């Protein structure tokens, strides 16, 4: 995670961002701290990446790379405003002994690469280039399934789909093209389908440890549906960070192996 010490909305690179809407940085930090404490209370270890001045979106640490089996595909951002984040996260990962591959193609880490069991679901359409999917398969040594996003509100895969367990996901069908919906239905016939209302508060920008699902507090219907399926929903309020287009998962880069 990366503390939002420099968080602000001074440019707009996704539909959630509006430079005319003021941001309360103190509130953003307090909400982020509550998320960090939630992970610690659940028994997870949280490492902190130092925030860089002038990088307001660095709080969205998930975009800094994707780590699997002790190897990482670093991030190369589509927008120049975030370009400095890629090397910063890569340097931090290397300092922890992770073998980091510097990307050749635009790819925005766990924003568009989500590990589900032994495969990786990979988004494209707004940020990550299709060529990065092939690069991820080569670097991470995993099957990569490409999915095209078609709704600009869900500009990253992690805003449209949540990994719940090694064989279980939740997603909003309207975020994907016909081919993507067919692929998801084939791979996950029992997936939880989330309605438009909850998806619009980033219900799917969630983090699961296989039992506890940390998700936005406003996603009440999704929380109820998760409980019905045997998960334990853990709601947190990240409303201030939502002004930057992110929530729980965006703030969380998961380190595997």
Strand content: 15-25%
**Poorly predicted regions:** none
Mean pLDDT: 98
| Rg, alpha carbons | 17 Å
Instruction: Give a quick account of the main beta sheet: strands, pairing sense, barrel closure.
Output: 3 strands, mixed
| Fraction of helical residues | 25-40%
Explain what this protein looks like in three dimensions.
By secondary structure, the chain is α/β, with parallel strands linked by helices. It has seven helices and twelve strands. It has a three-stranded mixed β-sheet with strand order 1-2-3, sandwiched between helices. The chain has a three-stranded mixed β-sheet with strand order 4-5-6, with helices on both faces. A three-stranded mixed β-sheet has the order 7-8-9, with no helix packed on it. Strand 11, helix 6 and strand 12 (232-236) form a beta-alpha-beta unit. The longest helix is centred in the N-terminal third of the chain and has 17 residues, at 25-41. The protein is globular and about 45 Å long.
List the helices and strands and how they pair.
Layout: H1 25-41, E1 65-68, E2 71-74, H2 85-95, E3 99-101, E4 113-116, E5 119-124, H3 130-140, E6 143-148, E7 161-165, E8 168-171, H4 178-187, E9 192-193, H5 196-199, E10 207-208, E11 212-216, H6 220-228, E12 232-236, H7 239-242
Parallel strand pairs: 2-3, 5-6, 8-9, 11-12
Antiparallel strand pairs: 1-2, 4-5, 7-8, 10-11
Describe this structure in a few short sentences.
This protein is 26% helix and 19% strand.
Sum up the structure in keywords.
7 helices, single chain, three-stranded mixed β-sheet, alpha/beta, 257 residues, globular
């Amino acid at each position: 995670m990366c503390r939002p010490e420099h968080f602000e909305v001074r440019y707009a690179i996704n539909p959630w961002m509006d430079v005319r809407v003021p941001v309360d940085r103190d509130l953003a930090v307090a909400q982020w701290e509550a998320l960090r404490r939630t992970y610690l209370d659940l028994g997870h270890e949280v490492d902190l990446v130092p925030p860089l001045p002038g990088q307001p979106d660095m709080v969205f640490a998930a975009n800094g790379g994707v780590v699997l089996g002790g190897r990482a595909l670093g991030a190369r951002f589509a927008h120049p405003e975030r370009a400095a984040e890629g090397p910063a996260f890569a340097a931090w990962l290397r300092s922890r002994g992770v073998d980091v591959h510097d990307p050749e193609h635009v790819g925005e880490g766990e924003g568009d690469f989500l590990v589900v069991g032994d495969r990786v679901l990979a988004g494209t359409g707004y940020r990550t280039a299709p060529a990065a999917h092939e690069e991820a398969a080569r670097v991470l040594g995993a099957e990569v399934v490409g999915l095209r996003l078609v709704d600009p509100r869900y500009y990253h895969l992690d805003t449209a789909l949540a990994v719940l367990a090694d064989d279980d996901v939740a997603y909003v069908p309207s975020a994907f093209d016909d081919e993507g919906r067919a692929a998801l239905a084939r791979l996950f016939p029992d997936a939880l389908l989330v309605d438009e209302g909850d998806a619009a508060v980033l219900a799917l920008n969630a983090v699961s440890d296989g039992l506890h699902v940390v998700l936005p507090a406003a996603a009440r219907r999704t929380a109820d549906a998760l409980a019905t399926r045997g998960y334990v929903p853990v709601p947190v309020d990240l409303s201030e960070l939502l002004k930057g287009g992110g929530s729980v998962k965006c703030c969380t880069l998961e380190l595997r192996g």
